[in-house]
Amino acid sequence: MNIDHKTLTLALLAASSTFLPATLQAQTIDESSYRLADAASLWSTTANAAGLTLDFLVDRGVAMMEGSHESRDFHRVQEGNQDNSLRFFTERYQHLGRYLYGYGKFDFDMGRTKNRRWSDVRRTYNSDPFISGSEVSGSYDRQDISLTAAVGTTAFGPWRFGLRLDYQLGDLSRLRDPRSRSEMLDYRLTPSFTYSIGRSTLGLEGHYRRYKEKIPDITTVQTDPNMKYYTMTGMENANGVVGGYNGYMREYVNHEFGFRLSYAWQSPSWSSLTEAGIDRGSEGIYGTYKYQPGHYHVYRYAVANKTTWRTPRWLHVVQARLQYEEGYADEYRQQLTITTDSTTGYNTYKYVNQMTYNKRYRVRLLDATLGYRLNSASDHGINGYIGVDGILRSVHNEYHLPASSFVHHYVDWGLAAGHGFFANRFWVDAAFRLRQVFDNQLSLADATTPYAQQVWTADYDDYYTVNSWRAGLALTYQQPITVKGHTSMWFVRLDGDYLHAANSQHNSRASLAIGLRF
């Protein structure tokens, strides 16, 4: 993917604007103080930029380069079994004059996934069912850019105002015949305001999001007379055509509107923020000559809370979130009509819709999370912590006429702890997670198709019905460096984790990061 140099320069400048708690104003921003600011902040965990100044933030930032490698035996077919990536990440909180605070983030991630098949798109699971792919496994290269720029005002009486822009670009390219290339553009604009009365604050944000993903064409280097390309419509239903990649084009365009209503109570020792919102998305799918296999609709309802309680030695943090998502796809039956102009002899191609299957495919998702973390903290930062959390996920996929269904439930329990040593120069973080699956069902109207056997049945037997545990360890060392009277903290982090599944499959991941807090 070609990236304009001016665009990249502007992105890096925007990413150099961000902030933290007032007690940290006079000290060097290090690992401990950065963790304290993240743990104590309420509004920076939302998309409401108007609330940034309610977190008593001061200037802070981080920039790092990270390389990672992951090998997977325990995975779904459409995910691939190995991933190598190189990432550059930076964010900054920054005062912008007397009346504005800003936040900026820039994230560039590039990598390669190996032995992936049956999906040439970015959103494979529990989403738009009209995807495509080949049963031949291959490697995929990706490049992703994520940019966030947010600005919030100080108080004008009881009012504060803010604006946030989230912008993403992505490229996913297959390196083996049939060679597809998926290009993605995703941006979201979120204006917001807050109104404060005493210690209480009401906030409102609304957003418009546009997501576009396009496969402009598919090429091949060699000619294989038996190679099929598949288009899916939901569950095991996939149509494979020999040479179907010739002239294939697919475009997904989603328009989403949503809002969030927030209420916060903030005091020096106890603070809480509750947020509730609704999103609605409408996605059109287009092919050659504006062919439309269907239309996808999605509704999302969410409520979340973060509560902090501060004592002289401890910072208690409780976070909870509940989200329900329902999506459905209308499937079209269309016929190509060709009209010839009698004067010029030119042909006009157009697809005419002959039949609509309303809500033929349906997705229902329920996600619930609850976590508690006890932090040993002073005015200068966090010295150590221990935390527990739980995640419940429920997935329902349904296809009608003929009827097929998939049900998947699991709970994921986590325990995490960390501590700083040698005046917090050296940090050790450890985590353990246990995933338990229950009440899973798979019913396919036709379990004999290649897509049913190689994807749905294989994933159900080897992934969805298998319990697993995961353990991780991260080691961080930081060193202050003073340049022209300004002290920054350089750090190096080594991170790794190991997953073991009940079917004796395992995953391993390792990463190395070098960065700077400033």
From TrEMBL:
Residues of the DUF6850 domain: 49-518
Recorded superkingdom: Bacteria
Pfam families for this protein: DUF6850
Keyword Signal: yes
Keywords: Receptor, Signal
Signal peptide residues on this chain, from the entry's feature table: 1-26
InterPro entries: DUF6850
Protein name: TonB-dependent receptor
Organism: Hallella mizrahii
